[in-house]
Amino acid sequence: MSYEIPFNRPWSSGREVEYVQACATSWHTSGNGPFTKRCEAILEDVLGAPRVLLTTSCTDALEMCALLLRLQPGDEVIVPSFTFVSTANAFAIFGARPVFADVRPDTLNIDETRVESLITQRTRAIVVVHYGGVACEMDTISAIAEHHGVTVIEDNAHGLLATYKGRQLGTLGALATQSFHETKNITCGEGGALVVNNPELVERAEIIRDKGTDRARFLRGQVDKYSWVDLGSSYLPSDLTAAFLQAQLEAREDIQQRRAEIWQRYESELRAWAESCGVALPHVPTDCEQAFHLFYVLLPDVETRTRFIQHLKARRIQSVFHYVPLHLSDMGRQLGGHDGQCQVSEDVAIRLARLPFHTGLTQDEQTRVIDAICEFEI
Ligand SMILES: *Cc1c(COP(=O)(O)O)cnc(C)c1O
């Protein structure tokens, strides 16, 4: 089945090929070249963060967080159940135990009122995900973390350029991770970044990204040879990847403007339909400026969702569901997850459908999606 209106389609600013070509002919294609440095400078400037390191993915940036915290088997990390696999897996591969928290029924973000009761002597970190680029209730979460001496990590894969009470998402935890996967707002195929907000972690973050070596110190002339000084891995992307990413980062305002218009049109033209048939649309608290990462509808029950997706499919429009709650996944169950453990996650996961949402979605395509949905009878 090929869709006329797919759920996602990559968007080009028009400069990606030019930059990749410039990189390819410059003879510096490995990491940490001029494109890597420019991308990092743009992100440091936009976020106002002390150091941003490009990485091969958001998943890898999360693994770097686990290494930075020196997580040990038996340590616990609190994560929302309603999230992508990597939020938990990146810590689990180092032997840490993910402890699943339920989400709020309105924003689908980690429920800040349920976090404190999950903290034990072994809790080392709280990982938050700003679902759809709408901020978690960070004041409450940060206060709990501080009280218990636990590190806050933001998995900010959805939330680059969004704010919470005027502060950039990605700067609210000691560490934050970004994704530039093809499905995200700003992309380079596969890629990510680690935002290091705690200056004390910068030097080790550089070492961890560079296979556990002090190569960064060597390049700055601080040591006369570099060697193996800590644990690490190969988390540095090629400058070819960074060249593509630079074109996208430079177009960030255009990208966000286009996505905002699509999101606002869906919201305003679907509101009457949604109200008339008991469907919930995304909720954005007033102190949050969101990132326009996705648009979803919450249907009354799983049967209606199946019919809704079929209804759109018959019109060659692709609607998809989102996360399987992690505590009910095969791995989650092996870690002790069970039915009823995170009831809001379980409930929304079977009722949520995402609409086609990408930077290049045309006006005509938007009209077709909206018309098709308004014809759907609950
Ligand atoms: C996409 C995504 C990731 C993984 O990003 P990669 O760059 O593909 O590793 C992690 N967490 C969340 C919430 C995501 O949406």
| Rg on CA atoms, Å | 21 Å
Number of domains: 2
Based on Cα principal axes, name the global outline: globular
The CATH first-level class of the largest domain comes to: Alpha Beta
Annotated CATH homologous superfamily of the largest domain:
Type I PLP-dependent aspartate aminotransferase-like (Major domain)
Portion of residues in beta strands equals 5-15%
The biggest sheet, with number of strands, parallel, antiparallel or mixed sense and barrel status, is: 7 strands, mixed
Give the % helix: 25-40%
User: Could you report the average pLDDT, rounded to the nearest whole number?
Assistant: 97
Annotated CATH architecture of the largest domain = 3-Layer(aba) Sandwich
Low-pLDDT segments, ≥5 res: none
Give keywords.
13 helices; 3-stranded antiparallel β-sheet; alpha/beta; binds pyridoxal-5'-phosphate; Aspartate Aminotransferase, domain 1; 378 residues; 7-stranded mixed β-sheet; single chain; Aspartate Aminotransferase, domain 2
Describe this structure in words.
The strands form three sheets. Strands 1-9-8-5-4-2-3 form a seven-stranded mixed beta sheet, sandwiched between helices. Strands 7-6-10 form a three-stranded antiparallel beta sheet, with no helix packed on it. Helices cover 37% and strands 13% of the residues. The protein has 378 residues and is an alpha/beta fold. The model has no long low-confidence stretch (mean pLDDT 97). The chain contains 13 helices and twelve strands. The chain folds into two domains: 16-250, Aspartate Aminotransferase, domain 2; 252-375, Aspartate Aminotransferase, domain 1 (Alpha-Beta Complex). The longest helix is centred in the last third of the chain and has 25 residues, at 252-276. A hairpin with a 2-residue loop joins strand 6 (163-164) and strand 7 (167-168). The structure holds pyridoxal-5'-phosphate. Residues 57-59, 83-84, 86-87, 129, 155, 157-158, 179, 181, 192 line the site of pyridoxal-5'-phosphate.
